[in-house]
Amino acid sequence: MIFPFEPEIYAPYPVRTEYVGNPLLDEYALRSQDLDIRKQLDLSMDARIVGIFPGSRQSELNHIFVTLVAAAKKLHEEDPHIEFVMPVAPSLRRSELERRLAETEARLPIYLVEEDIYAVAEACQAVMTVSGTVTLQLALVGTPMAIVYKVAPLSYAIGRRLIKIPFAGLPNIIAGREIVREFIQDDAHPEALKTETLRLLDDAAYTQQVRDDLVLVQKELGAPGCSIRVADMVADMVGVELKKGVRRNE
User: Fold this and answer.
1) Structure pTM?
2) Which of 138, 215, 229, 237 has its CA 20 to 30 A from that of 104?
């Protein structure tokens, strides 16, 4: 299991389960710590930077991209000193995001970056993001966020009848409560996102609480070493002895 809440799901069944850790913990541990996105983009260290994380799938772009950019436009109207960074997922082309930005006619200071997602997150004081794996990456960095979940109306109508969990974002699911705000379907509109993001930028006490809660999520996830622990478990099952020094808890 790669999420700490999964063993409980299988508890009623005669299946052996064990939480081995999440692969993102290993990815985060191996991240480049030399990347400075602010310096790379020639942004001052005291610049107010908001991340726009539109996801990595066409469906996310189709249903959420315009909403995120519209929220950014409202933020910039409120505070012209805010600048924006938008990571380009490996599964997308930079030209695709450039085309979509041009279609919005937003004319905002949005910098497209193709660097390590963790370096991008570390450069941001707040992020407006789609739900999914990226929210866990943001949680590992400790960057406050507002999560947006929006799909085709029919898909949402069907999904809300089938999905029983109360949250869309992984940090909230792991915490078992809403530690970062979620804006789902009809609630995912630019004005609401603008208001929440400004609060993350301006309300120091609120933002610190979010950061503290994200630290609890980090602790719940545990330590790196997922692959080693899985290899150790498989070796135990088939009766193979791993090389010295390669054990589950190392």
Assistant:
1) 0.86
2) 138
